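Checklist before submission:
- one chain only
- standard amino acids only
- sequence pasted in full

Submission:
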Amino acid sequence: MSSTLYALGAIALWATLASLGTSLAHLPPFLLTGLALVIGSAMSWPLALRDRRAWAVPARTLALGVYGLFGFHFLLFIALRLAPPVEANLVNYLWPLFMVVLAPVLLPGMSLRVLHVVAALLGFAGAAVAILGARGAAASADGGGSVWGFLPALGSAFIWASYSLWTRRVPAFATTAIGLFGLVSGALSLLCHWLLEPQVALSARDWLLVALCGFGPLGAAFFFWDVALKRGDARQIGILSYITPLASTGLLMIVTGRPLSWTIALAAVLILSAAVMGTRAGR
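Returned file contents:
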């Protein structure tokens, strides 16, 4: 299977994450994140049991994996609870722009060009359109308090961008080690749930959706993405990743029964245009 197909597989699975998170909004976020990550890691357990070297990574690499997988998804689920889910999903997909801006800071030998700055400003303009559009709707409903939900959305975008860049500064690791990242991150999330959150009982529907979340966007997608990056041209695969926010937002709007507004459409166009521009500037 080609690297493009692996990348498209990851993109298709990631497009379902916001909708699944919204459908499970009644579950405590630490519980949801922990269960999904542990379930997602299970796909690599047989390989790890057969060959312990599959999960042999330095402590620094493991810490980076936990930072990326646990931090990103937890903040994203929080954002989907506190802010209008469509706009929060769009803001979260500023991570390609954050990667452009942070690349010269986190990676040696890279510089920030004028086109990079223009792309970053265009992306933040898209986020502003989404936030202001949501604030208008929220103000009439609850005084605009849900606007604070965009802060964890921005935080999740920063975490994923910095995690993606920092993986280039650690020793190469096997794809199966992604399962170790998910298992440790999931265990940490479940511990936080036990210490900080009320205990809840999951229905059969809840378990089904959590399993879909774990095996899909919080499981197989990470393995597909890692294989795609190892086998293919990262620049071409990065361009393909910009399909994700459009597919994710479209699916989320179907699930929430929300019609397409001009602010959502404009924000999507600005963010995607900025991401493509940033990619071209990096060539």
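Reviewer check: The radius of gyration is 18 Å.
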